[in-house]
């Protein structure tokens, strides 16, 4: 299990790729996918925590979404947005901080799989998404 240095964004991308192949058949492949997903989940917990919007922001966003489904509520939506401008600014600041976290590098233990051990029904698109764990043989 080699240690690999990736940016947090690359780790997120790998997590998404692993998620896209998690239902493919093959015991060895499934073990590699499951172990990597577990490792990555732990590695990205601080980013997941940092990206969660506040309850207050979620409440206002839900209220706006509900109003947006109705005709003629644009003025009411603008009033709510203006009254809660500080929440939008706080959320934007939070998202900017998360963007910076995604640029940081982390060293993670990545479980690999040999290319001849990949499931036969894996697509080229799926291979591209998990290429960082594939070893050519």
Explain how this protein is built.
The chain is mainly alpha-helical and 137 residues long. Helix content is 64%, strand content 10%. It is built from seven helices and four strands, in the order E-H-H-H-H-H-H-E-E-H-E. The strands form two sheets. A two-stranded antiparallel sheet has the order 1-2. Helix 7 (124-129) links the parallel strand 3 (113-114) and strand 4. The longest helix has 19 residues, at 85-103. The two termini are 16 Å apart.
Topology:
Blueprint: E1 3-7, H1 8-21, H2 27-43, H3 45-51, H4 55-68, H5 74-83, H6 85-103, E2 105-109, E3 113-114, H7 124-129, E4 134-135
Parallel strand pairs: 3-4
Antiparallel strand pairs: 1-2
Helix pairs in contact: 1-2, 4-5
Low-pLDDT windows of residues: none
* Rg computed from alpha carbons, rounded to a whole number of angstroms: 20 Å
Per DSSP E runs of 2 or more residues, the count of β-strands stands at: 4
Q: Determine the fraction of residues in helical runs and give it as a percent range.
A: 55-70%
Ends: how far apart? Answer: 16 Å
The number of helical elements comes to: 7
- How can the largest sheet be summarized? 2 strands, antiparallel
Indicate the multimeric state: single chain
**Strand order, largest beta sheet:** 1-2
The secondary-structure class comes to mainly alpha
Q: Roughly what is the average pLDDT, rounded to an integer?
A: 95
N-to-C order of helices and strands: EHHHHHHEEHE
Globally, the shape reads elongated
Strand content: 5-15%
């Amino acid at each position: 299990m080699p240690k690999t240095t990736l940016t947090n964004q690359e780790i997120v991308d790998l997590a998404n790729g692993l998620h896209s192949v998690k239902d493919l058949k093959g015991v060895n492949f499934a073990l590699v996918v499951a172990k990597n997903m577990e490792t990555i989940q732990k590695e990205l917990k601080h980013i997941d925590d940092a990206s969660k919007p506040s309850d207050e922001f979620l409440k206002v966003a839900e209220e706006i979404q509900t109003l947006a489904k109705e005709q003629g509520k644009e003025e009411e939506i603008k009033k709510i947005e203006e009254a809660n401008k500080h929440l939008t600014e706080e959320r934007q600041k939070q998202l900017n901080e998360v963007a910076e976290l995604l640029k940081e590098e982390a060293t993670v233990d990545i479980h690999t799989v040999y290319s001849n051990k990949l499931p036969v029904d894996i697509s080229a698109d799926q291979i591209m998404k998990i290429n960082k764990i594939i070893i050519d043989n």
